User: Fold these one by one.
Assistant:
Number 1:
Amino acid sequence: MLNGVKRFITNGDADMKLVLARSEEGTSDARGLSYFVHDKKWGGVTVRRIENKLGIHGSPTCELVFRNAPAKIVGDRKMGLIKYVMSLMNGARLGVGAQSVGISEAAYREALKYANEREQFGKKIIEFPAVYEMLAVMKAKLQASRAILYETARCVDVYKALNALVTPERKLTPEERKENKKYSRYADMLTPLLKMTSSEFCNQNAYDAIQVHGGSGYMKEYPVERLYRDARITTIYEGTSQLQTVAAIRYVTNGSYLEMIRNEYESQEIKVSDAVAAACPDAQARLEKVKARLVAMTEQYEKTVALMEGKPEEYIDFQARKMCEMAAFIIESYLLLLDSLRCEKFIDSAEIFSERAQAWNNERHFYIYNCNSETILSTCKNVKGDLDIVYQE
Ligand SMILES: Cc1cc2nc3c(=O)[nH]c(=O)nc-3n(C[C@H](O)[C@H](O)[C@H](O)COP(=O)(O)OP(=O)(O)OC[C@H]3O[C@@H](n4cnc5c(N)ncnc54)[C@H](O)[C@@H]3O)c2cc1C
């Protein structure tokens, strides 16, 4: 029998609910939680309210009240969070990554269309450097987000396809087992980077789409104001960007991202296909420059991570997001570079994104490099002193 309240449940009035609930009295940690299934027909659950939200108005978000609601346990007791919800969440994070790519794409298309129609000072606004730069960067962020989405989905597909081969009569060969382990690990490593960066990029793209529209973008008549509101949830649900960092940081500190970048991406030969060479004669030279930039960025990332040696955990947590993003920007740049070898449509974005990524990573590296690790935590903690002012007011 489930009792309690669950807030913020998407499509909460569904026929079938999967519920994470505390099954072990007196516990407060993850081991006290089990996983349950509840069928609407069994009764005991009411929708107390539907939330009034900033965006995603097509998706009802419910507050559910459980009063002696009959439920059946799913799988092993006490493994609710550790085993089932963690695995479910990785799938959902991939989904939010895809949702972010969708919103980014819509924002980019709206901005591009508007910039091509609107005239100011006798010119289409797409002719102004400030506007075409914004559009080119939006496109690069969009293509980078899609590249890491597909790469993550590919890793998930590979290990799931291998899992699907297993039957009572058919075990995986040692080689298949090795592949399975590798791709399952890669999927775990890439998922938080995908969720964090593509959701942040989709918010940036929605912001810039409004900027391209000027005053009109602020009006309800144009779809970009809705995209801006819809984008906002993507950095929050299925784990905030800060929680994606919590999931990803161990792969920074144990060297897994560095190893992945070097083994999977840096090791690949940069040789454009005949079709790309025909369509874009300078492709090979342009992409070799991108590769050289990425090799340098990887060395810089390695040096940045080395600065964490011997530092307390709180300091590493403090700097974690910057290092996770550095790894993500390098991986995304490499994916665009590798896409460019097969199709010339990615070359501009490979250049633009990697140039930007280098600037973003430089900023992160020099911030960490110059940070006074002895004092920065206490200096930032001073913000708590402002609570007195807030409460007095
Ligand atoms: C529209 C909508 C739909 C939703 N749908 C569902 C659903 O269907 N099912 C469901 O179960 N949930 C759902 N949620 C809940 C959603 O997943 C959570 O709101 C989200 O994960 C953030 O948790 P929180 O609201 O408790 O924020 P908090 O955990 O209170 O976070 C507040 C702030 O503190 C930061 N923070 C918290 N912990 C840490 C930490 N350890 N390290 C660093 N920073 C931290 C966060 O990043 C954030 O900035 C939905 C939420 C919304 C808004």
Note: Residues 174-213 form the longest helix (40 residues).
Number 2:
Amino acid sequence: MPESNDHSMTRRNFLATSGTALAAAASPFATGIAGAQSKKLKVATVGTGSRGTLTWGIPVVKGYSDVVEFVGLCDINSKRVKVAQGMMGISAPTFTDFDEMVKKTRPDAVIITTVDGTHWRYIVRALELGCDAISEKPMCTNEEQCQAILDAAKRTGRKVTVTFNARHGREDKRVKQLLMEKAVGDVVSVDFHEYLDTSHGADYFRRWHYLKENSGTLLVHKASHHFDQANWWLNSTPTEVSAYGELKVYGRNGTFRSTHCRVCPFKQQCKFYWDITKSERMKEMYTDCESEDGYLRDACLFRENCNIYDTMSVRVKYENDVMLTYTANTYQPFEGQAIAFNGTKGRLDANHFGGGGYSQGEVRLTRAFGKSEVIRDFEERREGGHGGSDTSIQDLVFRGKPDPDPLGLRADLRAGAFGSLIGIAAYHSIERGGETVKISDLVKL
Ligand SMILES: NC(=O)c1ccc[n+]([C@@H]2O[C@H](COP(=O)([O-])OP(=O)(O)OC[C@H]3O[C@@H](n4cnc5c(N)ncnc54)[C@H](O)[C@@H]3O)[C@@H](O)[C@H]2O)c1
């Protein structure tokens, strides 16, 4: 089984284009390699909100300053970008204009942590200005954006990395290993169910995600994690998608609404009422910055113009004939995932549930006509966000570790494209009454 998710890339040229071989070329994959170079990777960030500051900011300053130097920070919100600078404790200059930042600070790579629908603009521009791009997922939210990125990468020869940290969970890595070892034979179908609760799930409807033009719906914003995992686990390429989606609880379904929680006359009766002012960090990062862009972090999740789905069901066909059934639901009493790989020689289950007084989780391998065993030999849990997966991906991006990378953890341009394209195809299918959408009709790869 190829070790990279990129089928066009052999093991040999993967090594040649990553890690040691490019140590002098100021690429994010070259920089950290075993202290072999004296130059630090110069990075600039665009989008200094929560993810840009709390994941790709503070922990990088703390844990990677030997190999990374922030040279600039940019955000459309001039106050928030200053807040980020303070929280990160750096003196790198702040900007509200991306081109100006790149031209003045000459970074080697740009970290893109803006609203999803704007990633493509900064990826394309970073590449055109001679930088590599390290983009948060999803890489893009529609097929035109995807094509623009693919074309820009081809034109410039620069590198795009998409930070799919969900590949980096220790259970997720173990699942990949078991599938590579063909523990269940050939996978024939996958059942993937995502459950978000009335806190985490609801939050997407308060935030910018509630509009498709910002997030590409949760089929792109959220499910790009899961579709990327599926593509990576199955080591195959999605070809056809059909889907249904509904908005049943949030948005126009509310019986009362306001602009945002702080001024809401229904505070007493709304089960979703949230007092943002109780968090100093939220105040500093969002409410104190409202004067600049009017963005309300505690906006009403019953806004009538919400145009994304809270209930989703998707079918995906892969090049290797695997069938994936995916569902996502955003108003559950607890959080969780139930994933099953049904193979010719058995079944692999990866489940976890938590919250609402309920907690359960295991990875279980059941061989056909054989034993069922709970898998426990995971790598040690790392410190850091998302159960340590954020630290694992930072090691990969800034230190080129693990090297070699037998699980193919690195997500490149192609992985970024397919991670988004399934969700894009799914919302097109929903808009066309469940019609099958071919991925090859969306972009020219
Ligand atoms: N991989 C993960 O686990 C994970 C987790 C959370 C968020 N994310 C991703 O990180 C990104 C940021 O999400 P967040 O939760 O930090 O949101 P956020 O709202 O906290 O931050 C977004 C920032 O982008 C800025 N911004 C918006 N439009 C911009 C533009 N056109 N130009 C420059 N700046 C702009 C906003 O002012 C804000 O500061 C999103 O793409 C999201 O999908 C990934």
Note: Residues 46-52, 75-77, 80, 113-116, 118, 136-137, 163, 165, 208, 221, 386 surround nicotinamide-adenine-dinucleotide (CB under 6 Å).
Number 3:
Amino acid sequence: MNLSDLLRFNPITIQCHDNPDADALAAAFGLYKYFESKGKTVRMVYSGRFEIQKANLSLMKNKLSLPIEYISPEEKVKIEGLLITVDCQYGAGNVTRLEADYVAIIDHHQIEITDQPLSRIEPRLGSCATLVWSMLKEENYPLNEDMMLCTALYYGLYTDTNQLSELFHPLDLDMRDSLEYHKALISQFRNSNLSLKELEIAGIAMIRYSYNDGYRFAVIKSKPCDPNILGLISDFLLQVDEIDVCLVYNETHDGYKLSVRSCIKEVNANELAAYLTKGIGNGGGHLEKAGGFISKKLYEKVHGATHSEAYFNTAMTSYFEEYPVIYARDYEFDSTDSAMYVHKAKNYGYVRVKDLPGIGRWSVIRTMEGELDIETADDLYLVLDAQGHVEFKTHEQMQAYYQCMEENFAVEGNMSEKAYRPLMKGKNDGNTYSLVDFARVCVPKKEKQIYVKKLQDGIKVFPIWDEERYQLGMPGDYLAAYKDDTSHIFIIPGELLNENYETV
Ligand SMILES: [Mn+2]
């Protein structure tokens, strides 16, 4: 569903969830502006038992002149024309049901409501503001001409991703980088975010931790509070000497919101968040900071009446137990029971980082899996596949394992349509490069034979060429090593084995 599909309706009412947060207000404001520019009669409303009270939200409402109206649940209103619920789903528990002629949904939470044909729900996005931003861009709406709207959208993302520390979807990052907003207003909102009540909640939460001294992790369940408090507590916990990894969560009306931190290279916070929420929600972020959400409905389906404390403590322990760590440098690869494979003759794209003009020494690479800070050594090469994954190689490895050509790596024919096109950004000059613009074709050498073994259990491999970042192997993935150099160990994801390799 696109915004232009909704232009056949008039009037249009946009409803935030009850107790609206900054993200709901921002997303609603974006829609309001769009429909207003199309000459519609628009309203922006919310309902529920409480009117907006939090200091930062009142400030946001006043400073950005949000035309939001409160509808008391006692008023039995009937909405004429179209009702769009934003940052929530019509019929779900966190939004008062208003009778309406037609209904549409624009949201980024787990899909709860499936019977509304007019809906756009994208659970992987960090904020509903991002979704509205991308829908406005699809319609070529002149976003950057409206600083107030941009400020609202930025603040929506800011508050929904723990001050931008837990965001991971590339669209969230793209929006963060492209919006022009009032910095002074954002800092004013930011400094009125918590109430004294919430300060107390944070304090109480911190004295009730559970701690695992074998794996050096802590788990805290907080009372219901602003989700930013979870990030605040977890950032604080990580500074404790005995704590390497932590999880802080609370219960919401429809599930659990969580914040994960790690300060050791053997645990990536984004992956742990994905592990804890797998099949029952969504999680991700950065190597050190991540967040996630678990849907109560799915949780109950899978874990029944298990208390959340028990679930999280057990799941944290299992994560450590299920993924032992190996360092390729001092690991003996045992080729017994392994099969022999070679690369298929397929096109990959390669970029010699030195060829990016003015990239500088420190840069950030952005892929579907998130963002990574890297030091751009002179002989660093990046190899891209059809799905937009990126692997790091040295000059020596490129020569040993690939045949490098001069031909450009054209997106068409080489990359799948849906793949996110990875970006690289210089930290000094701030320039952004789309890697495919600089990529040339390389083809893996067919004569290089590879031992391949199916993994029965999970494993983390620190490959010989990167001792800072591990590759994760899950049961069903493959552990592989080159025959001519068995210290060259790596993981092949289960679904890519037959796609990229063939037996000898
Ligand atoms: Mn939201």
Note: The first strand starts at residue 12 and ends at 16.
